[in-house]
């Protein structure tokens, strides 16, 4: 099967799932609100509902109790900008040449996700939704790449990949806190400021259908726990295990627990305002955890295409639609949430958008059977890797296009310890051409887009 055939099958699948979702009973209360909560650099096993023994996350875990927990969900990329580009566009981020974390402001910081009028928040805004991003953006600094340009009515947060939790400075040491496109000054711990901004937005828009993207920077470095600012050299540098006076797991845990407290405040606000029953809440993470995270039972971490770098927690709560307490091993990816949100809100999607994610809600609601997926990833730096998962099988090309091919059955070997390439050459022969065809497809579109954006006619 070629990549084009995979795309065709995915399109049919998306149509079938949307149709199945349309058959669900219409609930009173009108169009649902959507709250999407994304944490940063948190490990797959860092929540109680995913087995964490040393972290108290009762609020995040309540979403598993009251909704569904996904065991085989993936980020679009192994780092932040790529995954966020996949979410906003609903497509593979390689099509926009966003494959690494974007640099800070300045001459090298001109790259980003340029607004096209077809992003997730813009489509929701076109459908009458109030839209907001509170927290991390990391998809560009220029006005044409800003959250507001992409359709967010309101933005409060930062544009860098990380921020000092107390000083609110980015990687270059300069202030990096914005309200819409204007720099602002605020006192407080960044996690708490994000929570307060999210709660305020819900309160202001309780009478409207709204889409709220809450993008916590916890538990991304610098490892600055609440009430105890880091005094590391440079303050925002990434402390490594070998550094003198390095960070410790307990600091990371305190940061994550503060974010969980914020999730609780947001959920209680929905309850207090009578909005919980008509609100779809989605919780996930942008990539695998860093060295202080717990990625068990997966292997490796952020910046790699081993499972520990791309498999992430994912919880979905929608009262009256998604049965409580369910667990599903349906394979999914960040950009599936894009398609699912658009479907749940009844938002029209022009053909030109060409979504590559699929609406998973009929499956999560129990109205459609689980389906086999074929998903792709690529890292270009610092670990050059390529990967494809189809069904239970994953082919990982480690170390560049001509690197060794490793084959794993993830249902039997989630820790990726047993390479099956020598025993199942038939599967490797089936998967490698799909991966090559996908790369050729996304690269051809990216090249065409870059040429168009560079043309004088397009710049006018």
Q: Output the CATH topology of the largest domain.
A: Alkaline Phosphatase, subunit A
| Order of neighbouring strands in the sheet with most strands | 7-6-5-4-8-1-9-10-2-11
CATH architecture descriptor name of the largest domain: 3-Layer(aba) Sandwich
Largest sheet: 10 strands, mixed
**What order do the SSEs take from the amino end to the carboxyl end, as H and E?**
HEHEEHHEEEEHEHEHEEEHHEEEEHH
- CATH class of the largest domain, anyone? Alpha Beta
- Global structural class: alpha/beta
CATH H-level homologous superfamily name of the largest domain: Alkaline Phosphatase, subunit A
**Count of DSSP strands:** 16
Give the overall shape: globular
Number of H- or I-type helical stretches: 11
- The low-pLDDT segments are 18-28
What is Rg?
21 Å
Distance between the termini: 42 Å
Q: What is the beta-strand fraction?
A: 15-25%
Helix content: 25-40%
Mean pLDDT, rounded to whole units? 91
In total, how many domains does the architecture comprise? 2
Describe the structure.
This protein has 460 residues and is of the alpha/beta class. The chain folds into 2 domains: 31-373, Alkaline Phosphatase, subunit A; 375-459, Arylsulfatase, C-terminal domain (2-Layer Sandwich). It is built from 11 helices and 16 strands. It has helices at residues 3-22, 58-66, 80-89, 120-126, 190-204, 249-272, 307-310, 334-344, 361-364, 425-454, 456-459; strands at 33-39, 68-70, 73-74, 130-136, 154-158, 178-179, 182-183, 210-215, 279-285, 314-317, 326-328, 332-333, 374-379, 385-390, 393-398, 405-409. The strands form 3 sheets. It has a 10-stranded mixed beta sheet, with helices on both faces. A hairpin with a 6-residue loop joins strand 15 and strand 16. Helix 3 runs parallel beside helix 8 and helix 5 packs parallel to helix 6. It starts with a helix and ends with a helix. Residues 18-28 have low confidence and may be disordered.
